[in-house]
Amino acid sequence: MNRVAVVTGAARGIGAATVDALVNEGYRVVAVDRCRDIADVPYPMASPADLDAVVSRHGDAVLGLVGDVRSATDMGLAVETATRHFGRLDAVVAAAGVVAAGGPLWTVTDGAWDAVWTVNVLGVRRLVEAAAPILITRGASTSPRIVAVASAAGTQGLRHLAAYSAAKHAVVGLIRAVAMDLAEYGVTANVVSPGSTRTAILEASARVYGLESGEAFALQQPIGRLIEPAEVAAAITWLCSPTSSAMTGADVAVDGGMTVS
C-alpha cells in the first residue's frame, strides 16, 4: 500500500515541492495551507488558487486542506483526514514558515514576533502533537517519520532577523528533543535546514536588507547560486522514506555550503 504523508505550507515553495517529490515516490498526501494572509507578516501568503494548483497536478494522490498550523484543531483534522481518506499515516512534514520583524530586536513589535514564533515553532508543535500518537501506533516496522523545515538561520545569527533566527534555532532543538521522546517507538524525527532558497520568504528577506531581489543571496553560498525548492524537497523525501532509518535527531543542511564555515 502507498505511504501517506501530511505536508504543511504545501501551497508553494518548499512545501509544494515536497508534495510533488513525495507523490513522485508513490505517496498519497494531505496538502495543508492557511491560504490567507497573516497580520504583521509583510508579504502575501499563498492563495487558495496556489493550493488548488498543487492538488490539480496530482489528481487523486493529493487532497488539499485549508488549515492553520497554529491551530490544534486544524492539525488534528489534517491527521484525521489522512487516516480516514487514505487509510493510514506514515510521515508528516512541517514546512510552513514565515519571516517578519526585520530590524534590530529592540524595534520588533510584539505582533511581528508572535507571528514568526507561532507559525515557525508552535506550528511544528501542533503538527507533531497531532501526529505522534498515530505514528507511534503504526510501529517501527512501518517506518514512521517526522520532518521539520528549519533554516541555516537555525545555526547562525542573522542581522535584523532575530525573531526568525531564534525561531529556527527553536525548531532544531524541538525536533531533537522529539526524536529522543519517540526513539523507543521506532519513530524518527529530523530537521532539514535550507540555505537561501528561491521562495517567497527569501524575497521578503531581501526587502529587509534593501536588496532588489533574493538573487543577491546567492553570494552567501559557496556553490554560487540559490537553492531550488526541489533540492530541499529531495532531502525531505529521503528522510520520510524507510531507507533513512538510522537518522534521527539530525539537522541536515541543504544550504550550498553556507554554514560550512
Quickly list its features.
7-stranded parallel beta sheet, 261 residues, alpha/beta, 7 helices, single chain
Structural notes for this entry:
By secondary structure, this protein is an alpha/beta fold. It is 41% helix and 14% strand. It has seven helices and seven strands, in the order βαβαβαβαβαβααβ. It has helices spanning 13-24, 48-56, 72-86, 110-138, 162-182, 200-208, 229-240; strands spanning 4-8, 28-33, 62-66, 91-94, 145-149, 188-194, 251-254. The N and C termini lie far apart (44 Å). The mean pLDDT is 95.
**H/E order of the elements?**
EHEHEHEHEHEHHE
Which ranges are low-confidence, i.e. pLDDT below 50, for 5 or more consecutive residues? Answer: none
Please tell me how large the radius of gyration is.
Answer: 17 Å
Shape: globular
